[in-house]
Design brief:
Length: 113
């Protein structure tokens, strides 16, 4: 493993720890909010908790959405590359399988089984 990939891996680890910290703060705030509704916490404190949770939800939601879109694009790209490789190599079985898979998913015929 070269130095550049180790550096990127460490940056990713720091970011993931930051997201973990935000998640824990959000869970802690949720616990305080639920507990506070039973104990009668002062209203300004609950308003601060709601504001912090909205900000954290925006950060975490954006991160989640970006990952989901990245996975979708990556998966679709892999299928297209596989299909094109099968066409170029003349592997008809794999090409036919991908055609059946996509036809089945698009028409909803897999729900009939």
């Amino acid at each position: 493993m070269d130095e550049n990939s180790k550096s990127n891996e460490l940056k990713s680890t720091g970011y993931e720890l930051f997201i973990l910290l935000l998640s824990l703060v959000s869970i802690f705030n949720l616990g305080i909010d639920v507990l506070g509704s039973y104990l009668g916490i002062i209203e300004p404190i609950r308003e601060v908790i709601v504001i912090i949770n909205r900000l954290l939800t925006n950060v975490l939601g954006t991160k989640f959405l970006a990952q989901v879109l990245s996975l979708g694009v990556g998966g679709l790209t892999a299928c297209v590359v596989c299909y094109l490789a099968c066409m170029l190599l003349g592997v008809t079985e794999a090409r036919d399988y991908l055609k059946r898979l996509f036809t089945r998913r698009l028409t909803g015929s897999h729900l009939d089984n």
